[in-house]
Amino acid sequence: MEKIKEALSDDLLGKTVSIRGWVYRIRSSGKITFIVMRDSTGIIQCIASSENLNDEQMKEISSLTIESSIELSGKLRKEPRAVTGYEISLQSYKIYERNENFPIAKDLGEEFLLDNRHLWLRSREFTAVLKIRSTVFKAFADYFYKEDYYQVQAPMFVSTATEGGSSLFNVDYFGEKVNLTQSSQFYLETLIYSLEKVFTIAPSFRAEKSRTRRHLTEYWHAEGEAAWYSNEDMMADEEKMIKYIIDEVLKNNLEDLEIIKRDINKIKNIKIPFERIKYKDLIEKSKEFGMNLKYGDDLGADEEYGIMVHFDNPIFVTDYPESLKTFYHRPDPDNPGEILCHDLLAPEGYGEVLGGGERIYDLQQLLDRIKENNLNPEDYYWYVDLRKYGSIPHSGFGLGLDRLVMWICGLSNVRETIPYPRTIRRVKP
Ligand code: 4AD
Ligand code: MG
């Protein structure tokens, strides 16, 4: 049994090959039936004719429908007119399942396709995106293993908020109200005192009402935390990680990028180091783009789009005003009101894919910030403890893997990056 990709080879010309998979396209013209078969590795044209098959078999083959599952054997030949350049002339076959009517066809409404996501995700484009996504997840982990980080796991049921109460999902936990995690950051921070450099890949949950092209209520969050790291040290690891992931995609997924018609040059030309721009300078610069932003304004999806359509390389935006970020960020001792943090904004209008920076490691400073934010220090006793026992400077980051895949693939909505997107309006299938 060959995988289709193996069968697309001059080495097997004239030989009998066997493949199994699903009917991708089928077309009959009188005495001949063309079936394009697909498996996880690709597609290949097969031709059924009365030369090799009897009348009954021909009838059976020509009445097959899209997504029926079959196994078949036949001689391989070159056929320049076929989709992938080769053709199997069918000699024998076995049908596993014959469809009555596969519900996915062209020009169907978006809601219908989302309801039928479990079937729609077989499409060639979506398969290509999922292969790229698989490379992205692996490359992220590989990069940090290479840099001597340890992979760790944090809980998803939690009793604290890291990114503010408004986007918390509450869960009934045996009668107690707990939350789904917004970020594993605080747990990663607890682990640097033994492992020093750690990362995790896990879901994060945000009850955000924002209906934008880049928000999911459940997304895949790749987070890292490193002892002794400054804001700049962290950015240096991150940009190398991003470059490494892109290079791995270019190495492993060229065909997939082609299937989704991604302009490869857009990602091939990404260069490190990424430019660092202070928030206040970016606000100034945005005037060049005809934007009307003032110091202190938050940058949301629209603002970042307006800025990043003018860039073809990612940028780090640093030193945001304290008022725009959560309480754990370390204020810059030299520039009151600003914090030692960064967001990584992706080009072509994509905007934020990563946020990170230095964490407060002074006990009193952390307690003050917790109180200023009207949070209860008792809820954060374990996080506060870290500042009492062997506190050290450290930094970390969180990267939205779905958003990274969206940018690498050049997609217009983050929903197109994940098999089962969770949004405000959808939790099925
Ligand atoms: O900027 P955020 O909220 O930062 C944190 O959660 C930090 N605690 C991370 C850390 O330092 N360990 O989220 C980090 C990233 C964002 O830059 C974005 O890419 C992604 O997570 N993200 C989302 N992706 C999809 N849907 C959402 N609703 C997202 N919210 C954040
Ligand atoms: Mg952020």
UniProtKB/TrEMBL annotation:
One of the Pfam families matching this protein, by short name: tRNA_anti-codon
Keyword annotations from UniProtKB, A to Z: Aminoacyl-tRNA synthetase, ATP-binding, Ligase, Nucleotide-binding, Protein biosynthesis
Cross-referenced PROSITE patterns: AA_TRNA_LIGASE_II (PS50862)
Record keyword Glycoprotein present: no
Gene Ontology biological-process entries: asparaginyl-tRNA aminoacylation
Keyword Aminoacyl-tRNA synthetase listed: yes
Enzyme class: ligase
Sequence ranges assigned to domain Aminoacyl-transfer RNA synthetases class-II family profile in this UniProt record: 130-429
GO terms for MF: asparagine-tRNA ligase activity; ATP binding; nucleic acid binding
Domain of life: Archaea
EC id: 6.1.1.22
Endpoints of the signal sequence: none
Protein's name according to its UniProt entry: Asparagine--tRNA ligase
Species of the source: Ferroplasma acidiphilum
Gene: asnS
